[in-house]
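Protein entry
_____________
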Amino acid sequence: MIAVIDYDAGNIKSVEKALLHLGQEAVVTRDRETILSADGVILPGVGAFGDAMEKLNAFGLAEVIRECVAKEIPFLGICLGLQLLFESSEESPGVEGLHILDGKILRIPSKGLKVPHIGWNDLHFPRRGRLFEGIDTRDDDTLCESKGNPYVYFVHSYYLQAADESIVTATTEYGVQIHASVEKGNVFACQFHPEKSSGVGMKILRNFVEIASR
């Protein structure tokens, strides 16, 4: 069973729907025991960093997330869920993130580009991460272009600058280099939305489900 953490953020139901499409049992919950007994845990979300941290703390979920990581339960942050795993965000000065991983969330510089960044961008892999196993081959299912880089769907105004680049498993370019995905131990995170990224995204979620089932 995969627990999808419910903290009144947007996009939670679409992640649940994608998991069910894969034939995976999924429960949207904020119950501590349910979360800690899950095979894997997902923290999705869209919204403001400060509001999200306020809700995680109010529901007692910040501590539950730290317990998940300490118990080495496979954990996946998606979009805002990635940002919350780090130290802080320029979106909400003075608000401390979960700080499970080291790094900061910065505003995307406009540089003549539209912000928020909404749309499809290709991924590059500085190192092979387990979420991306089997998705960089050139076939229709993975929506890869001729050079073999898969495309995924982004919606965000802020981006990750990880302190330790060795945890970065995927990057993209949008005015700056964006750390689009990270992996450290049992913790995984994606700035993009796998649940909205067609064949590539479903493969990423399937890879996470398989990691959780081991």
